[in-house]
Amino acid sequence: MLIQLPLTQVSDHWPFIKDRVSDSLPVIADRGSDVNSILYGLMVGTMQMWKISDTPDPDGVTRGFVLTTILGDVSDTPTFLVYMIIILDKRAKINPSADFNTLKTYATSRGCTKIGAFLENEKIISLLKDNGFKLSTYASIDV
Fold it and tell me: Which of 117, 121, 127, 141 has the fewest Cβ atoms within 10 Å of its own Cβ atom?
């Protein structure tokens, strides 16, 4: 179950995930950048932090986090981006359909017409393919 955390709770969880965020930056991020810029984005609301929990109780056990943001594009197409997923406990009970609907509802409420993600996990890629998602390749090189 995904629960969006209010801005006031983000800094409480940051110490537990800061190193994992640093180790899990997506391909568009500079590996040498200060991960506190992500904390800043979360604190000012340009990024969102979602708690993965087994129950809808905000005080329930935290099994992981999903960090998201909204990207603009020159085509004026706002895309809700799943920036990264951090699993703290492999026993996390994830319901892909319900969790996707939670993110989709939020994305729609923010005017997004697409949902995107950077993926390296083959299990997640297979799950998305099986559910009709369009997948493409993103390539980058440091300059």
Answer: 141
